[in-house]
């Protein structure tokens, strides 16, 4: 299957997603923000439709709109400090609402729209891959510099702030990076399933990992197996790539829960 | 003359329209064991959060190590064990060792120093046997020992504590107060909120009693004086039992 250029692109993109999504996901899960990926991915939909209306690459529209949505989350969180999940629910429904209204203006996007919803290995262009690589480099560079600060903040935000870590600023950059991660992942797993790539491999890894680093490494391994398996199966059996990838990761999750129970 | 570590001047704070703290002024000196007593809702935690720069007030000034708390670059000399630490995310996937090491790296220590400081702190608190265990799988007392190790690992000059013994057993509580006393003897300044009046009067050399409209600093841990202040704040006589 690797003789096809689209499969090469799918595998490169898939490997990027399987490293970045669980890496971000580990911090998302321990900070109890599992819904944020869902919220931002629904907003990405409206960015895709908006870009299509203006005749530009959908991925650019998704980047702009998800980053704006990330800022909107900061604004809402300040106003509903005690009910943080409210901001995520508002962003999620606003994203879907905007996408559905915008779709009314562009009848010819609907066929292509499904590939963004559920992922499509044939739909990834060279330009998508270049943007995915560029965004991944930004995400890795940030993590390289701030890994320990984010760890401290995830464990005990007040203690981290008291010891001089700029938790407010880091927290905002973290949400913007989740927005970029959503964009990196949307062509492979589809916007409706991005969140599961951030959460399910981490949930499976947490069953048996002792340390934080073990959790990150195990979740990346689980995601790589799911992505390569999912892309391969979707090629040979003409399945939706996103759904297949996520179903494999769910099988691994169930297996790790059952194996832990037998120990 | 004693060196001031923390200076609070004319500090007031309100949550929306509700005044919580009104025109407080006090200093904490190097080597103090400064206890803060008072009923729920009297503003103890708010005061501690203001002193740590976790929240800010428009009225009054707070200086730590001679610098404004907002602007100081010396926050790595501070440690904090929060009330929340007793109810942290129990499923957090990190070992005790990893937790201490990563906290040190987060405030700028390099890998070699962080490893050495981590093992020193673990040895000092006597938790070598649980260093490789996941923090969430430990008992309340063991977790609290891990938090002490984390707090002292950066060799802080001042440790702030907010009701640190809530939810731990009597034996662990005793260990905790002894550990803080030992650190204080080595010159570390302790600033602790507690509901345990007898513990504060046993270990602290200066005690602040805070009530709705009252703020009084006792320059010694004289039980009679503190009892009088607490009687005014709580509206009834408090019986103090020495630890």
TrEMBL record, chain A:
Classification via CDD domains: TM_ABC_iron-siderophores_like
UniProt record, GO biological process: response to zinc ion; transmembrane transport
Entries under InterPro entries matching the protein: ABC_BtuC-like (IPR037294), ABC_TroCD (IPR001626)
Keyword Transmembrane helix: yes
Subcellular location: Cell membrane; Membrane
Superkingdom in the source lineage: Bacteria
Pfam families: ABC-3
UniProt topology in membrane: Multi-pass membrane protein
Keyword field: Membrane, Transmembrane, Transmembrane helix, Transport
Transport found in the keyword field: yes
Listed GO CC annotations: ATP-binding cassette (ABC) transporter complex
Transmembrane segments: 6-30, 42-74, 86-105, 129-148, 173-204, 216-237, 243-259
Family recorded in the similarity comment: Belongs to the ABC-3 integral membrane protein family.
Protein name from the UniProt record: Zinc transport system permease protein
Organism listed in the record: Acetoanaerobium noterae
């Amino acid at each position: 299957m690797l003789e096809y250029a689209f499969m090469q692109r799918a595998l490169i993109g898939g490997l990027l997603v399987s490293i970045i999504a669980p890496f971000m996901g580990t911090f998302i899960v321990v900070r109890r923000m599992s819904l944020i990926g869902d919220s931002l991915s629904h907003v990405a939909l409206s960015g895709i439709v908006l870009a299509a209306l203006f005749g530009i690459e959908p991925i650019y529209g998704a980047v702009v709109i998800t980053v704006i949505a990330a800022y909107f989350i900061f604004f809402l969180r300040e106003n509903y400090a005690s009910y943080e999940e409210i901001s995520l629910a508002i962003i999620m429904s606003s994203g879907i609402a905007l996408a559905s209204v915008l779709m009314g203006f562009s009848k010819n996007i609907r066929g292509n729209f499904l590939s963004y919803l559920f992922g499509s290995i044939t739909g990834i262009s060279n330009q998508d891959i270049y943007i995915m690589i560029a965004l991944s480099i930004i995400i890795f560079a940030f993590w390289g510099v701030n890994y320990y600060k984010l760890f401290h903040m995830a464990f005990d935000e007040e203690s981290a702030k008291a010891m001089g870590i700029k938790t407010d600023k880091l927290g905002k950059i973290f949400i913007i990076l989740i927005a970029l991660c959503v964009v990196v992942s949307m062509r492979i797993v589809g916007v409706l399933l991005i969140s599961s790539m951030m959460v399910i491999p981490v949930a499976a890894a947490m069953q048996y990992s002792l340390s934080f680093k073990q959790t990150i490494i195990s979740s990346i391994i689980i995601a790589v197996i799911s992505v390569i398996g999912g892309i391969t199966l979707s090629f040979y059996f003409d399945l939706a790539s996103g759904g297949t990838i996520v179903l494999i990761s769910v099988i691994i999750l169930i297996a790790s829960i059952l194996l832990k129970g037998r120990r | 003359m004693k060196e001031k570590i923390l200076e609070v001047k004319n500090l007031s704070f309100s949550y929306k329209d509700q005044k919580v703290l009104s025109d407080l002024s006090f200093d904490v000196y190097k080597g103090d064991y400064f206890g803060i007593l008072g009923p729920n809702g009297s503003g103890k935690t708010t005061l501690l959060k203001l002193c740590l720069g976790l929240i800010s007030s428009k009225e009054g000034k707070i200086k730590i190590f001679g610098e404004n708390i907002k602007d100081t670059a010396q926050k790595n000399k501070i440690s904090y064990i929060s009330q929340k630490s007793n109810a942290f995310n129990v499923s957090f996937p990190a070992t005790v060792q990893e937790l201490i090491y990563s906290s040190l790296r987060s405030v700028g220590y390099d890998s070699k120093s962080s490893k050495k400081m981590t093992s020193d702190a673990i040895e000092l608190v006597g938790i070598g046997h649980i260093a490789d265990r996941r923090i969430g799988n430990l008992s309340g007392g063991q977790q609290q020992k891990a938090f002490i190790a984390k707090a002292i690992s950066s060799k802080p000059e001042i440790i702030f504590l907010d009701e640190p013994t809530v939810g731990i057993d009597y034996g662990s509580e005793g260990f905790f107060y002894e550990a803080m006393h030992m650190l204080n003897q080595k010159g570390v300044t302790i600033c602790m909120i507690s509901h345990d009046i007898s513990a504060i009067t046993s270990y602290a050399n200066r005690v602040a009693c805070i009530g709705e409209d009252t703020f009084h600093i006792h320059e010694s841990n004289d039980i009679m004086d503190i009892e009088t202040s607490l009687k005014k704040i709580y509206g009834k006589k408090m019986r103090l039992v020495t630890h």
